[in-house]
């Protein structure tokens, strides 16, 4: 049944023609029913084409499973409709609304954003309190045992206790993720990136995901893994936003009958971006950084009022967290903890930097870029290994427990063999100072870094006075923590990579700062403070791993609470990004690619002006007539080989060979609602027994439209007709066949389209461009490359 | 010869039909030459139409001059092409380029942004130094005279000296603006807003404008007007960017032959937005605020890499200024002055605020909104008065001088009659303490506010200890400065409104803070510091006047150097905006409207779903054939009654009555270059004596394309043909006639279009939508309103 046309395009300037397994590339259409229309003819102006069946060319046959590499795009991901479906129903509703009702909607949007902020802040507070208390309990118990056994001998018992406690917590965390909601694994940032980009990731913004995420992150952080609780806040905020804005919970089967107007992808996306921003804001105390994060990741949809609302949600979120924490700490009104992580205040006398330090910063950026690339490459291999061999749930839980035990063991060993004793000062930041084999009144410096929550270790690296750590401690810590963090990311636990990255970077940054005066053998007062270099190292390492730029700068600036470091942080992040990008993409992008998500970047690849809509589009296209037989529609929707989601609606062609003129576009989800409500016209007596369908019916079904299999259509009903005029979008965006790929891409990306109809100069449907058709092209090492499409 | 079709649309839900002077509304076409095509038929599905000649309806006749109200859109403003002209030449060039050359371009963009930052920072430094020194000189001289005459009597001599000195400086400033470059008047922010929006404001980014702007702002600030030097920095940065990015100066007739790729509107706009951000950054030491300003004002063009470059330019700009200032102050390396204005550091013990203060902040926001609305309304009337009666240049200069003299006199009188004496403390922020009639060791508090540059007065209001000002002084100062600032904005001098707004707000905010404990008759420690309320008042007043939201919050947060005040500042700005918007638009928008600029807002008016492309479009459209007679083209371009800039290119219709199929779009500027280079095909011997035109020829002519009158075409040449195929954009964006206005608007705005072709289902040209057609609709008090179009 496949349309076996292999296409060979020879890229000028590259020499070697690229072949692609085109059998999965084109939408295949089943020629059943005369009313469906197929465009068999393909233009051959710019293409050399040849017919190759899969049998003739076994090399290109569709792989039976996803070969876990990034040269494929999965077809299992659908797109979201970020372009409003302007059909007659919608226009009628909009026209009925008075200016006053638009104003009410606007007020509702503000209220929702406020709620998002409050809820996200509360969740952050909840996580923070639970983690702090549980971790405190854990460290207290272990410290007691260690202190007891240090002199008595038999420290291995405390090691076992530590490892078992960690594994137990992590087992809980991994269990709920693996068995209840696997999408809650990881930081959730790649998923939210994809959502804002317009890719529908199943179950990503459900209530269940949120619950699992929150508990998962608590257990994994308390379990002592090399993870942070900040990344998951972004995902949590997004789920909160998606839930609140819809005014109902499908999981809980509770519909509050409010905010019904917002039950569509466009509006929901806007709120989700506010939620993500609120999450960043609560995590780092960085409201502006949150706004920029949302815009950097999502925004083909910048709009002044929307951005302002996003900012509002962010502000409320950090304010809520701050207020709750201040009450919890019994210092009401002292708003000093705007985020989950707080870098502490850098003394104004130490924040100075000079022009001649800039080369050093750039150098640190380069180191961060290289280390980040190493991190990402190791994690890439590890993830491929995991996809291949660790896909059973029990194995996943066991791996997580193993990592927890190993983390405890390695930490213990590092502390045990460390000889870095530091005098215990009054008012030092040590919460759990381990004496171990140090003299009385001293503590083990290695334990400061390992025997603590990562957030506190970061702060200690930033602010401890010079001499707190000796270089060996820092070097060893960097190495082990680097490997642990790399192993940990991608486990089936819910946790983030921000804090481990910061911690690694802070450690080697501080090392760098300590070594500087030694290398240059000068006693320069500017170099005296290693905390500054720890900050730069943290920025470099984080930038090298995640490669965010503007938003990260602002987040770090806001987290330090001072704008003075803006320029050096930016320089460092930029260098890290440039250096890192030379080797491998950012961690999130690596994972998005490994999931074969059809992600659309900001612009079409630079060298893609060779391609036009004609080469890019899918063709032939399954079309419907304006008035279509129900049986045909059911057959098309049921065809499992194809899984089309959008169908151009055409004017009845005079002869069946000629393509029909485009007159609209209708979605699978709309057709399903129509079929469910049996909006049929009987063939004989026109317009009988027909219920007037309203926009509300579509909204009620959103977003979980039933599958076609669940809708029963009798044989009689199959003979009825369905009039699509009222429900289709009568003015879909179209482009001519000669449009260049960058132009198609710009239109698609700027408007957040899902389907773009390609027409000829008679306005006849020639093809359809979808997200997958555009995401397939990317700029590789050897010029433009094309990805293959594969069913999951 | 206008096309006298008056259109009457009755808006459902509104009752009263709106009439518009439609004779200037439609593009009129001259039916000369059979190859030109006119669509005479207009669809009448949704419209009632009637033919009314201007004679029949004198009320609607085109006004002979602009009646200075905001119900008109001027036709004198053209649009910029923010959509790339993808013709064959362009595509060929892009296809010839290797990935490496794209990378080089990217590096060039970064270099340019760095240069923009350095130059903008240097200009800021230059302005700052000159203003400081000249103003210091002036105040020293006057202080000396005042001190001398206070005891000797005859203070009127020092008043006269003050007034004359001020007037002299202001005369210089007003003279160069009025006689050399009137576009340099004001802050330049409305102009840059329009530019980024896509409106071509003549001469706005020229070198001459920059020079006049810089000197103008120096003279007006030194002249003691109630103005700031911050706003103009944004304009200056934009001019720098436009100049640097083009690699040549048309004014200086110097072409460096670099950056030729960037010689088109799209690229230039990107750099101008970076320049504007660099300007904000240098003015307020707010690099993130600068980025957000550019995005808030301009951005239909958000793009990650671009934003990152904008941020880079901003950072470099503030860093340059900071470095230069630190060298100038002989404290190299101490980077403490990131901007022209510096709010100083708020003590961390005073920055506290409590939840119960929020109603107070909201209240202050409301006051700011109301005062801002009063300011804008007064300034609106004043501006109309000025447009009507003060349009001669000498009058403008004289008005500016009058304002300067009055400012000096009023200040003098206020100081003279003030009895608010404060003890002169060691280390107080007073730079020019005036003793006047105070006792020895005391100084006049009113003089602190008036006898100083506004920047220093603002800082004094923020940070002076409680008790420095008494309530009467603050009240009187607010009132007089409010009126002075209102009178000053709109004068023919180059100056900004930011600082005066901040100053007014700080004054009444401080007053508010002082009155609070009195009203509530409590001794609350939180209320003890009036500086906090001064800051909130400043935010409220500025927000009430300019109504910027997100960027202003960030600018103020960055200028205070602490993120703690973020939430209250946002609350205050939001309230001010909501309250102010209820009465009148923001100051910049008022001025944009008074200039009748076709400005496109973020979204189509909420209630505009009634309208479709059919009602909105201009029709009939002047079209060209693919191969067109030179004479026809020259005639169309020369027609003074119409001033079309874009022409759809159509396929030769079979019969001349039927509309032709669209096959491209060509611009006036392209045709002019073609005519200039005589790219003709002789009718008999085809393709003879034809020079191959390159993209370079178009770039060399950009942006000052010669007028058609300057191109001589002989009678023989008129008989030649011109083949437009290679030069037209073969894939213009199109919409069907039924597309709703919001959808058209979204497409137009998101892609930065200049012309959008409306086609029927046969792909035949039915009309053309331009910026003016969309900007005409706005939401008034009584629902949707339509503006008239008028020639200047």
TrEMBL record, chains A, B:
Species this chain originates from: Hemibagrus wyckioides
Stretch list, region Disordered: 1-38
Localization per record: Membrane
Protein name: Chloride channel protein
Record's GO cellular component terms: lysosomal membrane
Membrane-spanning parts: 107-127, 159-180, 210-228, 271-294, 306-328, 358-382, 394-417, 473-491, 497-521, 533-557, 563-584
GO function terms (MF aspect): chloride channel activity; chloride:proton antiporter activity
Domain CBS: 728-786
Family: Belongs to the chloride channel (TC 2.A.49) family.
Keyword Transmembrane helix belongs to the record: yes
Topology term for the membrane: Multi-pass membrane protein
Main location: membrane
Keywords recorded for this protein, A-Z: CBS domain, Chloride, Ion transport, Membrane, Repeat, Transmembrane, Transmembrane helix, Transport
């Amino acid at each position: 049944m496949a349309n076996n046309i292999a296409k060979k395009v020879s890229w000028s300037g590259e020499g070697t023609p690229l072949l692609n397994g085109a059998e999965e590339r084109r939408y295949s259409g089943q020629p059943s029913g005369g009313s469906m229309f197929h465009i068999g003819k393909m233009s051959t102006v710019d293409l050399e084409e040849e017919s190759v069946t899969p049998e003739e060319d076994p090399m290109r046959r569709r792989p039976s499973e996803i070969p876990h590499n990034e040269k494929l795009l999965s077809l299992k991901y659908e797109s979201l409709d970020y372009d409003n479906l302007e059909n007659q129903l919608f226009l009628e509703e909009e026209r009925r609304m008075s200016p006053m009702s638009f104003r009410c909607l606007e007020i509702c949007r503000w209220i929702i954003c406020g709620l998002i902020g409050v809820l996200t802040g509360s969740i952050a507070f909840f996580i923070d309190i639970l983690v702090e208390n549980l971790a405190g309990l854990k460290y207290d118990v272990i410290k007691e045992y260690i202190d007891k056994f240090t002199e008595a001998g038999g420290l291995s018992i405390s090691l076992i206790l530590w490892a078992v406690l960690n594994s137990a917590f992590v087992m809980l965390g991994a269990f709920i993720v693996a068995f209840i909601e696997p999408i809650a694994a990881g930081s959730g940032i790649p998923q939210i990136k994809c959502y804002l980009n317009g890719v529908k990731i199943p179950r990503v913004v459900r209530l269940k995901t949120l619950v699992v995420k929150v508990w998962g992150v608590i257990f994994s952080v308390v379990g002592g893994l090399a993870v942070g609780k900040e990344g998951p806040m972004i995902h949590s905020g997004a789920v909160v936003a998606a839930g609140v804005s819809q005014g109902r919970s499908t999981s809980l089967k509770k519909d509050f009958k409010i905010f019904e107007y917002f039950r569509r992808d466009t509006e929901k996306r806007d709120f989700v971006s506010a939620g993500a921003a609120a999450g960043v804001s609560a995590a780092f105390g960085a409201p502006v950084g949150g706004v920029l994060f949302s815009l950097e990741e999502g925004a083909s949809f910048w709009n002044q009022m929307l951005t302002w609302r996003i900012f509002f949600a962010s502000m409320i979120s950090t304010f809520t967290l701050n207020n709750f924490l201040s009450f919890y700490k019994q210092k009401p009104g002292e708003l000093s903890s705007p985020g989950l992580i707080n870098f502490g205040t850098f003394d104004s006398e130490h924040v100075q930097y000079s022009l001649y330090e800039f080369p050093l910063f750039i150098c640190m950026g380069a180191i961060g870029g290289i280390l980040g690339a190493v991190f990402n490459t190791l994690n890439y291999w590890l993830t491929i290994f995991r996809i291949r061999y660790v896909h059973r749930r029990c194995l996943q839980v066991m791996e997580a427990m193993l990592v927890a035990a190993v983390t405890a063991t390695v930490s213990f060993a590092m502390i045990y063999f460390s000889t870095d004793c530091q005098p215990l000062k009054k008012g030092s930041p040590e919460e759990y100072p381990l004496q171990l084999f140090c003299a009385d009144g001293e503590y083990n410096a290695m334990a400061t870094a390992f025997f603590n929550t990562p957030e506190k270790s970061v702060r200690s690296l930033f602010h401890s006075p010079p001499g707190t750590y000796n270089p060996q401690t820092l070097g060893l810590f960097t190495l082990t923590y680097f490997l642990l963090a790399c192993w940990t990311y991608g486990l089936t636990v819910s946790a983030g990579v921000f804090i481990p990255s910061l911690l690694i970077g802070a450690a080697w940054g501080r090392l760098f700062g300590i070594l500087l005066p030694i290398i240059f053998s000068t006693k320069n007062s500017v170099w005296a403070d290693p905390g500054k270099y720890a900050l730069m190292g943290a920025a470099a390492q984080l930038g090298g791993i995640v490669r965010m730029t503007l938003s990260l700068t602002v987040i770090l600036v806001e987290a330090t609470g001072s704008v003075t470091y803006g320029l050096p942080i930016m320089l460092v992040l930029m260098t890290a990004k440039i250096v890192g990008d030379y080797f491998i993409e950012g961690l999130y992008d690596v994972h998005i690619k490994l999931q074969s998500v059809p992600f659309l970047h900001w612009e079409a690849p630079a060298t893609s002006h060779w391609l036009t809509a004609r080469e890019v589009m899918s063709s032939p296209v399954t079309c419907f007539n304006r008035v279509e037989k129900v049986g045909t529609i059911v057959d098309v929707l049921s065809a499992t080989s194809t899984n089309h989601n959008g169908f151009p609606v055409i004017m009845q062609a005079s002869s069946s060979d000629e393509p029909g003129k485009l007159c609209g576009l209708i979605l699978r989800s709309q057709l399903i609602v129509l079929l469910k409500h049996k909006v049929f016209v009987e063939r004989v007596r026109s317009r009988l027994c027909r219920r007037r369908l309203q926009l509300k019916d579509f909204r009620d079904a959103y977003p979980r439209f039933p599958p076609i299999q669940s809708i029963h259509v009798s044989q009689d009903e199959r003979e009825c007709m369905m009039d699509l005029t009222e429900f289709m979008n009568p003015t879909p965006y179209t482009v001519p066949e000669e449009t260049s790929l960058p132009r198609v891409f710009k239109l698609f990306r700027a408007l957040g389209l899902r389907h773009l109809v390609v027409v000829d100069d008679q306005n006849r449907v020639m093809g359809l461009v979808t997200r997958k058709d555009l995401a397939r092209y990317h700029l590789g090492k050897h010029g433009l490359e094309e990805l293959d499409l594969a069913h999951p």
